[in-house]
Amino acid sequence: MSGADHGREHADRQERVDGQEGAGGQAIRVMVVDDHPMWRDAVARDLAAAGCDVVATAGDGPQAVRRAQAVRPDVLVLDLNLPGMPGVQVCKELVGADPALRVLVLSASGEHADVLEAVKSGATGYLLKSAGAEELIDAVRRTAAGDPVFTPGLAGLVLGEYRRLATDPAPAAPDEPKAPQLTDRETEVLRLVAKGLSYKQIAERLVISHRTVQNHVQNTLGKLQLHNRVELVRYAIERGLDDA
User: Fold this and answer.
1) Ramachandran category for residue 22: left, alpha or beta (phi over 0 → left; psi -120 to 50 → alpha)
2) Which of 2, 167, 197, 209 is close enough to 201 for a disulfide, judged by CB 3.0 to 4.6 Å?
């Protein structure tokens, strides 16, 4: 898919997200992946009852990849322990092919290694299966909006990993072009993203709308030729913006 096609796809998805928050808009398209049928069906029912459009479900890794590529959900609710292909590999393949896809991991594991591996694979958020239905529904909506959503106690872990990654030497790139110029507001938003603030918190801090924050982030991603929030935070921390 070309960059222009990705841009149109993101715009279409964002309209659905905004519509979910308002009246008369299209519902957020969600796909649920879990190898336990009763759990998978229960999650799908809860999301459908909350107004989401559950476009597909899947019970193993290869099936998840095929169906997600066919239906192109806004949010993929993904278990990590899947037969046929691990959830992190499913996430890596799908987000790699479609960076606009948001992935919310819903797992029984709270192991730090599992959380970090999921985030490195492109997941937007990580929620434990002990979460209640209302917490899950809120997490799906926030994930669709691009906010990082983590079970309490895990967000600090992930931000710490961002900082560790930023200290690793980046591979040399010959004839690297000059870094594109960001506007003052884009730089300001980037600095707050690097500090771990959600889009909602950034909007409140800068007294602008949630949608405006999203637009600034998308513009910045495009200018820097980055694909997701993980890469964006690493870029900002490498340049010391989180300490500014």
Assistant:
1) beta
2) 197
Report how far residue 219's alpha carbon sits from residue 212's, in angstroms, rounded to the nearest whole number.
10
Hey, what amino acid is at 19?
G
- CATH fold of the domain at 24-160: Rossmann fold (3.40.50)
Check pLDDT > 80 for residue 164.
no
Which one-letter DSSP state was computed for residue 241? G
Query: How close are the terminal C-alpha atoms of the chain, in Å?
Result: 37
Can you give the pTM of this predicted structure?
0.67
Residues 6+ apart with CB under 8 A from 195: 242
What does the domain layout of the chain look like in residue ranges? 24-160, 181-243
Residues whose CB falls within 8 Å of the CB of residue 117, separated by 6 or more in sequence, listed in order: 88
Task: Please give the structure tokens belonging to residue 2.
Answer: 């070309």
